[in-house]
Amino acid sequence: MGVGADCGFYEFKRQLTYKCEWYGSKLVIADRFYPSSQICSNCGHQQKMPLNLRTYECSQCGFETDRDFNAAVNLKNYVN
User: What does the domain layout of the chain look like in residue ranges?
Assistant: First the structure.
């Protein structure tokens, strides 16, 4: 990531923080290395997930769903 990209994200985060404070919302920022796409949102099992696979298939419980949906559910449930 270049300097310009960092500044753009910083400004986005600053604005998001401001808006959350304004509306009384809580902003939770997940650690950038949180493996949201590698964790089963059904049972919590973690497994490697190559980028070319678009469907998450849990080897532990057999749960299957869209990779991005699975990651979104994990981020929704993220607690830091």
Answer: 1-30, 31-80
CA distance 37 to 12: 23
Q: Name the nearest CA neighbour of 41 among 1, 78, 80, 5.
A: 78
CB 46 within 8 A of CB 79: no
DSSP category for residue 74: H
- Among 68, 72, 70, residue whose Cα is nearest residue 43: 70
Residue 6 main-chain phi, psi, to 5 deg: -60, -45
| Tokens linked to 61 | 């419980």
List, for residues 58-77, the tens digit of each pLDDT value.
Answer: 999 999 999 999 999 999 99
Q: Is the pTM of this model over 0.85?
A: no
